[in-house]
Amino acid sequence: MTDRQLPRWSELKPLLRAKRPTLNPTDRRLANALTIADLRRIARMRTPRSVFDYTDGAAEAEISLRRARSLFANLEFRPSVLHDVSDVDTTTTMLGQPSAQPFAFAPTGFTRMMHHEGESAVARVAERVGIPYALSTMGTTSIEDVAAAAPRARKWFQLYVWKDRSAGEDLVKRAANAGYEALMLTVDVPVAGARLRDVRNGFTIPPTLTAKTVLDAAVHPAWWMNLLTTKPLQFASLTSWKGTIAELLNLLFDPTMTIDDLAWLRSIWSGPLIVKGIQTVEDARRVVDAGADAIVLSNHGGRQLDRAPVPLRILPEVAAAVGDRTEIYLDTGITSGADIVAAKALGADACLVGRAYLYGLMAGGERGVARAAEILTTEVRRTMQLLGARTVDELNPSHVRLP
């Protein structure tokens, strides 16, 4: 029989350590978010259905996105033990300049739609973390305002080639004048992908007040109040648009662009050129031969061609083909710092993350983006330590086995 006794106060006191309550509701929500999936869950509750689905969704049956995430989830890490990993170094080099982490914030359109603080908040977090941030052509904060918001950040400008080439030239000149470091040309949008969630939600820019959206406003009053009481949405590239996303893309973007047009772009831009949207080894070779300083293996987050190649799957072959001639970045399907480490080990110089920080933005504005960056950086560091890698350059294919 077990002998029992009443505990003495001196024994109970060390166990009763009351935690100081967090009074600010946003800080409280973000403190409870331990993963990007947690931020996604909060974002879904904090934003209207159509806005969340625009961020979260992909093209058609969303097979491309699921496959990309599945490959990351099912890969196997192969740790090397008995190494001193008490102090690991997560810094890497992107376009010849240091980045504190092996990832950058990807360009995303309509960012002030997710939260009124928008691109400026993302740029400020990138500045503090010490990583690059790419502003989208379809951003909702001007090139100049983002530059002013984060003057010391490494800023890249993402460009879609328009049917009106003079408008594109003007954007490139504005980016150069505002001190943007690199130009990122996206090449996988000759026409808009079929994003069926947006069609079903009747999603427009800005949101149209219908019976459905008015009902949604009752559930998300803070989001609507911020939208209606801050300055109207203004694109980096045009003043307004009242139609759907697909209609806008098909109106503006040039489906006749070819590899020869890279020479035109080089004639108006003297800085580093990144080409985003590469999905085959053959195209990787073509754009590198044409002078790309870096390429991004990407299927646009699964938002263009459904059942497109999974970037992580083709990464080792692309790295073997052109890795000695250009920098290779990767996006699509990244939901954790462990994913970033895996891509780095398989040959990527760095990754671009988009949805991850947008979930943070929707969950809590600039503080939410900072929380997303904190989660990713913590996961990168911990995964490196558990793999036995003291620097990102020590990561190599022996650390990862793809299914």
TrEMBL record:
Q: Which InterPro entries does the UniProt record give?
A: Aldolase_TIM (IPR013785), Alpha-hydoxy_acid_DH_FMN (IPR012133), FMN-dep_DH (IPR000262), FMN_HAD (IPR037396), FMN_hydac_DH_AS (IPR008259)
Q: Tell me where the transmembrane regions lie.
A: none
Q: In which domain of life is the source organism classified? A: Bacteria
Record-level Gene Ontology MF annotations:
FMN binding; oxidoreductase activity, acting on CH-OH group of donors
Among SUPFAM superfamilies, the record links this protein to: FMN-linked oxidoreductases
Write down the required cofactor(s).
FMN
Q: Which residues form the active site?
A: 300
State the UniProt keywords alphabetically: Flavoprotein, FMN, Oxidoreductase
- Domain FMN hydroxy acid dehydrogenase as annotated: residue spans: 28-403
Q: In the UniProt record, does the keyword Flavoprotein occur? A: yes
Secretion signal span: none
* Binding of FMN, residues: 107-109, 136, 158, 186, 276, 298, 354-355
Q: Does the keyword Transferase apply?
A: no
Instruction: Tell me the residue numbers annotated for binding glyoxylate.
Output: 54, 160, 195, 300, 303
| Recorded family membership | Belongs to the FMN-dependent alpha-hydroxy acid dehydrogenase family.
Name-wise, this protein is: Alpha-hydroxy-acid oxidizing protein
